[in-house]
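Per-record layout

source: Mesorhizobium mediterraneum
name: ABC transporter permease
length: 288
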Amino acid sequence: MERTWNNKAWFMVLPVLLLVAFSAIIPLMTVVNYSVQDTFGNNVFFWAGSEWFEEILHSDRFWEAMARNLAFSAIILIIEIPLGIFIALNMPKKGWGVPVCLVLMALPLLIPWNVVGTIWQVFGRVDIGLLGYTLRALGFNYNYVNDPFDAWITVIVMDVWHWTSLVVLLCYAGLVSIPDAYYQAAKIDGASRWAIFRYIQLPKMNRVLLIAVLLRFMDSFMIYTEPFVVTGGGPGNTTTFLSIDLVKLAIGEFNLGEAAAMSIVYFLIIMLLSWVFYTVMTAYDAEQ
């Protein structure tokens, strides 16, 4: 039987799509305009063509910040996805513990990004912060202001604390949607805990895991506020990610043309990597 499509629903969402497109296109066109021109202020512009793009793509500064971004995103995904799955598997599915766990998981997500950065900035200080003071008292030479390794550890732990809850809630939603009949059949067959996870729970979580990976990758790759508040991109440039470097270039150095070109390249890289993630994971899901 030939399937028929009802396109009337598009008319319901068309005004919203047009509004979003309009609000996104105007800033984007402004950035594109700046990326092919140069200015010395007073609203006077000079044509630069592709000069800024060539300078960005041949800049060691850009590629070093890119490498830091990719490393950070990879570490975040390696930690948060398995940890989120583990926590979701061990959360209660019935009873009074369900709302308690859901509220506790949602609390970090409700805190604004700049407040998260401020919390961890104070928390990690060696003079008044509980974490920094405790680690120093235990004999660890911890100082995220001066030590690059400590700065990275602090930023990673901060992001894990802030965003693992998102993965947990998505995985939990996938788990509670599994009918009890699957578990009953597995119990009758004498399936092990690992077999239940491998053949029942994990396949049912594939789609929510795809969303979790895409969201966490895009968020971690675009991270700005939290590390900027905690470390300011330091010590040195060790936590200067692309977003922080972009702001320094545009506001600190007032190099609007190069910053605009960098933001476009940044945007295209995020789009490309997100498309690769989506294509690979949907292809894997189709094979299951």
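summary: The first helix runs from residue 8 to 35. DSSP finds twelve helices and two strands in the chain.
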